[in-house]
Amino acid sequence: MRRRSLSLLLFLATACDSGRLGAPVGGTLGPGATGTSGQSASSSLVGTWRRILYFLADDGSASSSETTWRFNADGTASRLSVTRNYTAGLADAQTVDAKWQALTQTVRITYLPPSSGTFEFSYRVTRDTLYLGSQAYARIGGP
Question: Which end of the chain has the least Cβ crowding within 10 Å, N or C?
């Protein structure tokens, strides 16, 4: 039972935050919508947001996957992905620079070279939580 639960947890965590961007689903802000603080939809995205997933394997090894988005008021953004293996004492980090634009019900993120690709995600901000697609990120820094 424990192995099945762990396998399911790892599968869900991998599906939710593998670093691969696809077409997530989730809540949206429509035209003129505001966050809970009365900000416009696009200005509510400005800030730094983090999501961390922790894993414990059957062999007892511990690891994590951390994704941090920084949305700047000038329309630039960055995504920092850090994978840690606590048991082995190893970590790997990757930063991707981007531009972002809030549209009617989505945010468009365009990765800058050497990365590439343009993706649109539904989003909403509730208090100190950003739902980007179906993934929840906690605010760790303001504008």
Answer: N
